[in-house]
Design a protein that fits this description.
The complex is a heterodimer of chains A (184) and B (221). Chain A is α+β, with helices and mostly antiparallel strands. Chain A contains six helices and six strands; from the N terminus they run αβββααβααββα. In chain A, the strands form two sheets. In chain A, strands 1-3-2 form a three-stranded antiparallel beta sheet. The chains are: A alpha+beta (184), B mainly alpha (221).
Chain lengths: 184, 221
């Protein structure tokens, strides 16, 4: 008996672990989108299903969607990353630009409203971790920088026009003030 | 870009395509098994075969999760390759907590004969206190692990059963709806792994090892 073919394996790996990071020159298996990594170091493979076969079908069928922890904060943080890492909303969304975590957290703070500093940081970090694990963003914890994840490349034209409108209504990242570090 | 599913869908009418794609999306994305009643692509045996063919192309398979209920899971040959690589997206602590829930909610009741069948979804809820007692993790980490496992559909929270004369317990845990996605082979493998871990010196464990080693099998048969 022969084992499973490479296409089926690649799709299953992406289902289990999110978008696949592959070396330069790796051909994309059937149906997968190949996104060159902007640093030139390899590429991402993201499975692409027809729009009528993605998760939004659940709502049309009256079925519950996946459970999301802290859905509001998670959505707000993704919105903040979108605002900071997609400087020109008329340009393609992938790969976008890298942003430091400070401006992202500041925009997130604008969206959530006043909270105490600890709670603000804790909810932001939890949301960053969830979104990073799911491939919606790439969080380099050592460098403390954030980028959009390869999954955003799957957003359709109509998704993007909704997101552009949202982008325009959001506060942008402020240049960091040179002033003292610690706020009271 | 042409869809990977074209070979399955090419000769079908638009309506059938839509029904098959919707059923595919439902079994792949719904956290719970999908009742046939809501998806024509699952109700009709011919359309359902096309859904199964689509799933097969991407390493998945259609799994019957009860009468008139369907979900999808990894093909057995694909699961074998994925786990052979040693890859596992779950953090170690989460795996440990999940194993505790499986042992206390399903494995022990099954051994005691209070639970029949080979499902990993039904069982005796394990109270949070029991998990706190059995785990080596600090309480905060246990709580975080349970939160992640719950979001992943690997455990679910149920109200703890009230026993007369006892202090009411907070919450209890059962394996989550993702366990519906296990194929028959995967369910058996999970049971065998727990036997090998819990009683490596038992005759049952010896029998499992014998069955898994093809050379040994030839000698004894």
């Amino acid at each position: 008996m022969t084992g499973p073919d490479e296409t089926a394996l690649a799709w299953a790996r992406a289902r289990a672990g999110g978008p696949l990071r592959v070396p330069v020159g790796t051909p994309a298996p059937a149906g997968m989108l190949r996104l060159p990594e902007p640093s030139g170091d390899g590429a991402w493979l993201v499975p692409q299903v027809p729009e009528t076969a993605d998760a939004r079908v659940l709502a049309e069928m009256g079925l519950a969607g996946p459970l999301l922890e802290q859905p509001n904060d998670t959505a707000r943080l993704l919105a903040a990353v979108l605002r900071c890492c997609w400087p020109d909303p008329l340009a393609p969304i992938w790969p976008g630009v890298t942003a430091g975590s400070a401006p992202v957290l500041a925009v997130f703070g604008e969206l959530t409203g006043p909270r105490d500093e600890m709670a603000h940081r804790r909810s932001a970090v939890a949301a960053l971790r969830r979104l990073d694990q799911a491939g919606w963003l790439l969080w380099d914890e050592t460098a403390d920088t954030i980028r959009l994840g390869p999954r955003v490349a799957l957003w359709s034209g109509s998704d993007l026009s909704t997101l552009r409108q949202l982008w325009r209504t959001m506060p942008g990242p402020q240049p960091a003030p040179p002033a003292p570090e610690a706020a009271p | 870009m042409t869809s990977i599913f074209e070979p399955v869908l090419a000769d079908l009418g638009e309506r059938q395509r839509d029904e098959i794609l919707a059923a595919f999306a439902a079994v792949e994305h719904s956290p719970e098994p999908v009742p046939e009643a809501v998806a024509a692509g699952l109700r009709d045996a011919t359309l359902r075969r096309s859904v199964a063919e689509m799933l097969h192309l991407i390493g998945r398979t259609l799994v019957r999760a009860g009468p008139g209920q369907w979900t999808s899971g990894y093909r057995d040959d694909v699961a074998e390759r994925l786990t052979a690589d040693g890859g596992n997206p779950l953090p170690l602590a989460d795996r440990a907590v999940l194993t505790l829930v499986l042992i206390h909610s399903v494995a022990i009741p099954r051994t005691e004969g209070t639970l029949s069948g080979d499902s990993w979804v039904d069982g005796t809820p394990t109270p949070i206190e029991e998990l706190q007692r059995r785990t080596q993790l600090p309480r905060g980490e246990l709580r975080q692990s349970l939160g992640r496992l719950r979001a992943a559909g690997l455990v679910r929270v149920v109200p703890a059963r009230l026993r007369p004369g006892t202090v009411p317990q907070n919450t209890a845990y059962l394996p989550g709806p993702q366990f519906h996605r296990l194929t028959e082979t995967a369910r058996r493998r999970l049971q065998e792994e727990l036997i090998l871990a819990a009683g490596p010196d038992t005759p049952l464990a010896a029998a499992i090892r014998r069955r898994r080693a093809p050379a040994a099998e030839k000698e004894t048969s």
